[in-house]
Amino acid sequence: MVNSLALSPCVRYSLHVKTKTLQLDGDRLLATLSALANPHRLRIIAMLESGGRNYVSQLARELGISRPLLHLHLQKLEDAGLVTSQLELSPDGKALKFFEAAPFDVELTPAAIAQAAQSLTNHTET
């Protein structure tokens, strides 16, 4: 039996996947939510998840955004631990930075937020 979701051209997003080994502290939770709070960054993760690892120039072409703007978004995602990168040399000697979606789980419940809030290091509101 073929999984019908695997054949679907749409991308599914899930923020409520429980993990048994990793609890996000308050600062890490804020970084994760901040990184996900942008449509370009959601599209980047979706593209990397559905198409696999890719290099910056190709991602920029496929997303229709400039490489400098893409770099800013990728840096935010990488800082939050949502994507990983690796620098590789192409056969013609060019340095290509490849990115891929990192496996991540975010439990977003009132209890998880209350627990994470206790470990916030920045107590000022923005």
Automatic annotation (TrEMBL):
SUPFAM superfamilies in the record:
Winged helix' DNA-binding domain
Give the superkingdom in one word: Bacteria
Q: Where would you find the membrane-spanning parts of this chain?
A: none
Pfam families (alphabetical): HTH_20
Q: Supply the InterPro entries for this chain.
A: ArsR-like_HTH, HTH_ArsR_DNA-bd_dom, WH-like_DNA-bd_sf, WH_DNA-bd_sf
PANTHER family cross-referenced by the UniProt entry: TRANSCRIPTIONAL REGULATORY PROTEIN
Q: What is this protein called?
A: Winged helix-turn-helix transcriptional regulator
